[in-house]
């Protein structure tokens, strides 16, 4: 990467890392987009990520701290942050394995068990207006999961997708019917769980020490089945073993498999907003399947 320019607001990755860690930078290389791998003069390697959206770094740093505070699933240690940059330790990764998967399932159950003050509650110190990926995500507390999930997770993205023409009005009516019937479809009431919030396979790092690390959270209080449904949405190595480990630690309520689609509506609509029509069709098909149960 290019040498660091002078001035706080003009920092590149090297300048930001040097300033936030107090160490001299030996070398740096771009990894992807706004992420760089940086080697420090003491031999440590860190990851520097530039927040492209207002409040994104604050939201991510607060989310990582909240997840770490549960003492359950591990996350990369934050080495420094400001309004524009987040610096974390680099995680040495290897191949997924069965023991790590079972352990991850148990650790994820413990994370969820750590709880949250309410559905929609954000991490302490985090902004109310946060993000899931590049999409806005507002953390607004609610008293019960079905009404909160409909009002603050499904319907905002549905409206945006309709306004952009990605979801057709007749299709939107199917999703709206699911929202109206959520109290009957949602299963037994559960307390608010501490969620990673964007738990797809790309945010699961299989570390060489045998413990999974989670990155890029959209952390908030929610239903624990949502994290598990997100893992299923795009696939994850050894998912059956992760599920068994989870169930051994904290069994899911009867009927959870039939509710996976309900919990996938939120990420599918987020993807429809960000990436277009293909995800909109999947969201509508998932809504229809939920109504047919």
Secondary-structure map with pairings?
Elements: H1 13-21, E1 25-32, E2 35-40, E3 45-50, H2 56-68, E4 78-81, E5 85-89, H3 98-113, E6 129-132, E7 135-138, H4 145-163, H5 169-185, E8 193-195, E9 204-206, E10 212-214, E11 220-222, H6 224-234, H7 239-249, H8 260-275, H9 277-291
Antiparallel strand pairs: 1-2, 2-3, 3-5, 4-5, 6-7, 8-11, 9-10
Question: What does it look like?
Answer:
The strands form four sheets. The protein has a five-stranded antiparallel beta sheet with strand order 1-2-3-5-4, sandwiched between helices. Strands 6-7 form a two-stranded antiparallel sheet. Strands 8-11 form a two-stranded antiparallel sheet. The protein contains nine helices and eleven strands. With 293 residues, the chain is α+β, with helices and mostly antiparallel strands. It starts with 12 loop residues before the first helix and ends with a helix. The chain is globular and about 60 Å long. Helix 3 (98-113) packs across helix 7 (239-249), helix 4 packs parallel to helix 8 and helix 8 runs antiparallel to helix 9 (277-291). Helices cover 43% and strands 17% of the residues. Strand 4 and strand 5 (85-89) form a beta hairpin.
